[in-house]
């Protein structure tokens, strides 16, 4: 088989959580462009429906579902609905995540004392862990359930969105966000080990700063904040979401058939040196 043919996803199908926006939407576009039937799920049902319709209008095979990853029943239903529509599920992106604030994007919030450990709001901590870590667990749990049932298929590929914050201690990133993403990394390694016997690969993408709607779209709304972030990145700029598509396709497709348990950085070199405060 020619190298490029290994990226072809014709006859496969995949589900993406947090697909109405940003990195999740780029994942959905990437696998649809490679020939897969895709389900876009999001807590923002309107956004998922809008983007799925846009993909259909562009000639791809897309559907949508409303799914809040804080609710196991909703995650299970989204996978069951996907399987009912497609006869199985080959690819899953556990991507939904959020920043609960305290300085990830906004210099104003950095001055908020809530960002200090000794006064940190436990409700913010719980929310971040519930979505960024437990939400990944719920998604991988249900993906594994339906992929193990792929008896007539070729196993599956699960891709988790981690962060460079899983590797480096970034003072400007939310405290629970770092803890959640580090947890995601190690959970991914166990899931990859356990599911290898079923032909299911599990990997994580660890992005550095991408221009998305995270943090209420702070960097989209504030050119000065975007320029400040650009200066923190060794390659000199934040990334656009289209730049994550080739990596997503590598991990989702047979091109990545010998990759499992990998935590792949795509961060413009952010892990190479200390991140200076804004
Ligand atoms: P984004 O805000 O553009 O997209 C996140 C999507 O997740 C949104 O559509 C949102 O509605 C959805 N979402 C939020 N809570 C949800 C829930 N409970 N259930 C289902 N969907 C929910 O942000 P993004 O930057 O594209 O974030 C995607 C992932 O990338 C997250 O896991 C984030 O932590 C990670 N990440 C982003 C960056 C970055 O610089 N943008 C860097 C590292 C990691």
TrEMBL record:
Q: Which Gene3D superfamilies match?
A: NAD(P)-binding Rossmann-like Domain
Q: Which Pfam families match?
A: adh_short_C2
Q: Name one GO molecular function term.
A: oxidoreductase activity, acting on the CH-OH group of donors, NAD or NADP as acceptor
User: Where does the source fall among the domains of life?
Assistant: Bacteria
Annotated InterPro entries: NAD(P)-bd_dom_sf (IPR036291), SDR_fam (IPR002347)
Q: Which family does it belong to?
A: Belongs to the short-chain dehydrogenases/reductases (SDR) family.
The protein depicted here goes by the name SDR family oxidoreductase
